[in-house]
TrEMBL record:
<dbReference type="InterPro" id="IPR036052">
    <property type="entry name" value="TrpB-like_PALP_sf"/>
</dbReference>
<dbReference type="InterPro" id="IPR001926">
    <property type="entry name" value="TrpB-like_PALP"/>
</dbReference>
<feature type="modified residue" description="N6-(pyridoxal phosphate)lysine">
    <location>
        <position position="89"/>
    </location>
</feature>
<comment type="subunit">
    <text>Tetramer of two alpha and two beta chains.</text>
</comment>
<comment type="similarity">
    <text>Belongs to the TrpB family.</text>
</comment>
<dbReference type="InterPro" id="IPR006654">
    <property type="entry name" value="Trp_synth_beta"/>
</dbReference>
<keyword id="KW-0663">Pyridoxal phosphate</keyword>
<keyword id="KW-0456">Lyase</keyword>
<keyword id="KW-0057">Aromatic amino acid biosynthesis</keyword>
<dbReference type="InterPro" id="IPR023026">
    <property type="entry name" value="Trp_synth_beta/beta-like"/>
</dbReference>
<feature type="domain" description="Tryptophan synthase beta chain-like PALP">
    <location>
        <begin position="56"/>
        <end position="378"/>
    </location>
</feature>
<keyword id="KW-0028">Amino-acid biosynthesis</keyword>
<comment type="pathway">
    <text>Amino-acid biosynthesis; L-tryptophan biosynthesis; L-tryptophan from chorismate: step 5/5.</text>
</comment>
<dbReference type="Pfam" id="PF00291">
    <property type="entry name" value="PALP"/>
</dbReference>
<dbReference type="InterPro" id="IPR006653">
    <property type="entry name" value="Trp_synth_b_CS"/>
</dbReference>
<comment type="function">
    <text>The beta subunit is responsible for the synthesis of L-tryptophan from indole and L-serine.</text>
</comment>
<dbReference type="GO" id="GO:0005737">
    <property type="term" value="C:cytoplasm"/>
</dbReference>
Length: 393
């Protein structure tokens, strides 16, 4: 079977476009045009050129010598933390901004949790000279202050979402509301593999440069294209989708998805959607979703703002439902400890989101000859205050 999207916008039973009628023209315009426009040689050339000259791709595939020795296996880190703006998010915003310009849009809106997608969107809007409005939960604005300052420096307007848990879900609601009110000139850059079709597929395609490079780099370093394991953290799941993309249909590659268990899967303070979620619809897509027995969305919790989402992208919901990916939940404490451990073992301070992925090394046993690729999806600059408060640094 194929684990990619089908022509109706579904991954197995998940996906689709569940949207208010007001949004139908916007989403339909995108659906009809995204494959055609992104396949144009001129689009490809501009996208590739910006990834190389502006983002700094290809990012290194780094052999983590000390980690490999400690865990007695071959561990490679995909260094998305070295991308311009400090995370993988820029791969997608570059693709979408070129698409938005091709569609004649002049005003860009986005939602952000950890602030990385907001910064990446503000960055490409500055690059292209377009108006930029970023919606961000009030709680996240407080805990990700450096990124808020960056967005403002880049000329974006940051609008606080003051409803609900005042985090990513609520910022997304506000962005969708804006889009409904401004359908003609506005383009909504979604930052993850969530939302109505074609967004999950489109974002995954733009992020797939990650797994494309992994294959090329492994061939050069190890004489084989495919690792035994690919590991990534999953909130909405765009860094993971990019890491898995070119391995989805190759069952020899084990896919490991790492979710945020928060204070523990059964603590009531968690964002482990695979463990706690049931099928539902959120932000225009049918997926796994944390909800009460009567279908109300429950508030997720994670110390990392980027994993603090009550659902998961439909690609990942399908990977979970079919058993293609192994899902592991990692607590705040495990992730924070790995933030310190990776810093002190490899000289790399990870984003707290990315730190979750490394905790898998303590949960699983790998063979000495295994090749394990972990996506270091972002760097920890934005999380220094959280690290400082947590460890009393």
């Amino acid at each position: 079977m194929s684990y990619n999207v089908n022509e109706k916008g579904y991954y197995g039973e998940f996906g689709g476009a569940f949207i208010p009628e007001m949004l139908y023209p916007n989403v339909e315009e995108l659906r009809q045009n995204y494959l055609k426009i992104t396949a144009e040689p001129a689009f490809q050339a501009e996208f590739d050129d910006l990834l190389k000259e502006y983002v700094g791709r290809p990012t290194p595939l780094y052999f983590a010598k000390r980690l490999s020795e400690q865990y007695n296996t071959k561990i490679y880190l995909k260094r998305e933390d070295l991308c311009h703006t400090g995370a993988h998010k820029i791969n997608n915003t570059i693709g979408q901004i070129i698409l938005a310009k091709r569609l004649g849009k002049t005003r860009i809106i986005a939602e952000t949790g950890a602030g990385q997608h907001g910064v990446a969107t503000a960055t490409v809007c500055a690059l292209m000279g377009l108006e930029c409005i970023v919606y961000m939960g009030e709680v996240d604005i407080k805990r990700q202050a450096p990124n808020v300052a960056r967005m403002k420096m880049l000329g974006a307007e940051v609008r606080p979402a003051k409803s609900g848990s005042k985090t990513l879900k609520d910022a997304t609601n506000e962005a969708i509301r804006d889009w409904i009110n401004n359908p003609v000139d506005t383009y909504y850059i979604i930052g993850s593999v969530v939302g109505p079709h074609p967004y999950p597929d489109m974002v995954a395609r733009f992020q797939s440069v990650i797994s494309k490079e992994i294959k090329e780099q492994l061939l050069e370093k190890e004489g084989r294209e495919n690792p035994d394991y690919v590991i990534a953290c999953v909130g909405g799941g765009s860094n993971a989708a990019g890491t898995y993309y070119h391995f989805l249909d190759n069952e020899d590659v084990t896919i490991i998805a790492v979710e945020a268990a928060g204070l523990g899967v059964d603590s009531g303070e968690s964002a482990a959607t695979s463990a706690l979620g049931k099928v539902g619809v959120i932000h225009g897509s049918k997926t796994l979703l944390m909800q009460t027995t009567d279908g109300q969305i429950t508030e997720p919790y994670s110390i990392s703002a980027g994993l603090d989402y009550p659902g998961v992208g439909p690609m990942h919901a399908n990977l979970f439902a079919t058993g293609r990916a192994k899902f592991i939940s990692i607590t705040d404490a495990q992730a924070m400890d790995w933030g310190i451990k990776l810093s002190q073992m490899e000289g790399l301070i990870p984003a707290i989101e990315s730190a979750h992925a490394f905790a898998v090394l303590d949960e699983m046993k790998f063979k000495p000859e295994d090749i394990v690729v972990i996506n270091l999806s972002g760097r920890g600059d934005k999380d220094l205050n959280t690290y400082i408060d947590y460890f009393k640094l």
